[in-house]
Specification:
Length: about 170
């Protein structure tokens, strides 16, 4: 069975970036921005941090595109970079002392269009790893094999953890 997102692979774009064609970055952005932002927002639970992760992911792709190995899963690589950057961003924020209220830092004043924010609110019942697996499976439409690569776990572990998350959500809601 073919995945719906198969046509959204960024393999050619990463190869072009590796050759120095920086214009390919806009194609990567068009294909992956929503998934990167969704994953980052799911981890950081902060709109501005998720934006930063999206931008930093694009910068990292420029910097390390030459290390991409042809034939490997480009989307999983991009989401792995985004996941690590989001975790780093979360760690930085936890170390920083904020003078603002926690609620003020989470939502921008102009209230941007965040389709699916209701879902993000529902995901608060899950821990960080559970949110990541659910977002990678449903939002980024990754296969269990791709989730295993991104999360650095086995395929079986990815399947089992996803099933547990679904059971937990069904039980809770």
């Amino acid at each position: 069975m073919q995945r719906k997102s198969k046509g959204l692979s960024c393999e050619k774009e990463l190869e072009a970036l590796a050759k120095g064609e920086t214009g390919a970055l806009s194609a990567v952005y068009d294909k992956m921005a929503r998934s990167i932002f969704g994953l980052a927002y799911g981890i950081t639970e902060n709109y501005y941090d998720a934006e930063d992760v999206l931008q930093n992911t694009m910068l990292e792709l420029i910097k390390y595109a030459d290390r991409y190995r042809k034939g490997t899963n480009a989307n999983a690589l991009i989401l792995t970079i985004a996941r690590h950057l989001a975790i780093d961003q979360l760690r930085k924020r936890k170390k920083a002392v904020s003078l603002d209220t926690p609620e003020a830092a989470k939502i921008p004043a102009e209230k941007p269009d965040l389709s699916g924010v209701e879902v993000m609110d529902l995901l608060r019942v899950l821990d960080e790893e559970e949110r990541q697996i659910l977002l990678l499976r449903l939002y980024a439409r990754l296969s269990y094999q791709e989730i295993a690569v991104v999360m650095q776990i086995t395929v079986l572990a990815a399947q089992k953890r996803y099933q547990r998350v679904i059971r937990k959500l069904r039980k809770y809601f």
